[in-house]
Amino acid sequence: MRKILVAIDGSDTALRALEFAVQQAQHAPPAELHVLTVQPTLSNYTAAEIYVTAERIKKAATDRANAVLKAAAERLEPSGCSFKLEQLDGEPAETITQRAAELGCESITMGTHGLSSLGILLMGSVAQRVVHHTTVPVTLVK
Prior knowledge:
This protein is an alpha/beta fold. The protein has helices spanning 12-25, 47-51, 54-76, 92-103, 117-123, 126-133; strands spanning 2-7, 31-39, 82-89, 107-111, 138-141. Helix 4 (92-103) packs across helix 6 (126-133).
């Protein structure tokens, strides 16, 4: 069965990417969607850790990831598509690229703009880094 990795972060563009991936998965031959959300790993001594413990930050990230995956499942269940949900910690672009390779995905689908406009200005787009580092086709949905 074909496999498509769909990277989501809960943003509107990620949900549109998920809907697009459902359409692609329903074409013959059908594909399994591997829906992945990646929570960035906080480095030691981040500004957030000055005010909040690492355990509370981790719990908040896990709760957020669970909410993102629950919303994805609610959209996917009526579609009849085969899908798997996964949450990983790490640098998002690197983790998405690596996981697609590990799973043998034929492509990656993701939104063009996630939740952090400021982050794009400071660090560059996750989508841009995925496109540059993966060996499989990437579909960007805006």
